[in-house]
Amino acid sequence: MELGNVVQFLENRNILVTGATGFLAKIFVEKMLRVQPNVKKLYLLVRAPDAKSASQRFHDEAIAKDLFRVLREKMGSASFQTLISEKVTLVPGDITCEKYLGLKDSNLAEEMMREVGIVVNLAATTNFHERYDVAFNLNTMGAKNVLDFSKMCAKLKMLLHVSTAYVSGERAGLILEKPYCMGETLNGLNLDLDMEKIIMEERLIELQAKEATEQEITLAMKDLGIQRTLDSFVVSYGKGRLTCLLGDPQSILDMGLQLANTTFCHFFEGTYSHLSRKIMFLMRLVELYETLPVLQGHVSILQQMYDDTNTEKLRMTAREGGIETDVFYFDPKIIDWEDYFTNIHFPGLIKYVFK
To answer: By the 8 A CB rule, do 83 and 37 touch?
Structure first.
């Protein structure tokens, strides 16, 4: 495997980034501007009705955040603002729209199709209990719409689609990287996208005919998503009928939860004793029910290891070739995960999420 110079590859490129105010997209944009300020243009697609709203949203949810503090301090406030104004073009749009990703400015759409060489799709909903129609239109049809738009870009060199890790269903053990064909599913059956759209539309028509409120429609469409994608065990969990999810105490996720519990007990000291009793009760349930065949298949949900062979090959190639390892090199093996979760991750959640 040969690996070229990444920074050079990005130089003077026009790049389209979707989901520009999302978690990963903000990190990508900051990294891009910091390591390759000579990128020609970043077209940042933001879900907004117009350019003014897109600009305000990007400022409030990205530029004004601490994420850009290092770059702002390194360049100085004036130079930083100049860089943003010169390199960033905010594009109000919506990837759920089939035509031009919802761009209303036809001149801008034509410019992007003429100039964009790299497309990075980071737009998605990561809400595990999202409305089925919202999740389907954004995560499934939205990705297809980005692909279709990319095919119209005359100078396209690369389309990068970033997906979630939570797509392996109930398979246990080592999860290999495997490409899927359009409509192919984990259980080997075919997924008919047109039929799914019909089911959603019929359900919405039915709810509107009953004059359901917006809240009732939202709940009904969430329930539809659960019915279409999960089994009865997780249906009960998602609806709150099952208030705990059994797991292996030696699994990776449960070890993470153990660290989370240790950290949070200092913050939520008043309720820690009460929660500890519940945890002990839960562990007793695990001991009592783990032998039941009906549950064994579900316990394995948490026993998944994702194959990173390709990532490891890339990492080794970069290291051996000395390809900008100071800028892009990442080796999770050197991270003290217990220290990271205890002193960085969970304190960060407490500071920025539980406020």
So the answer is: yes
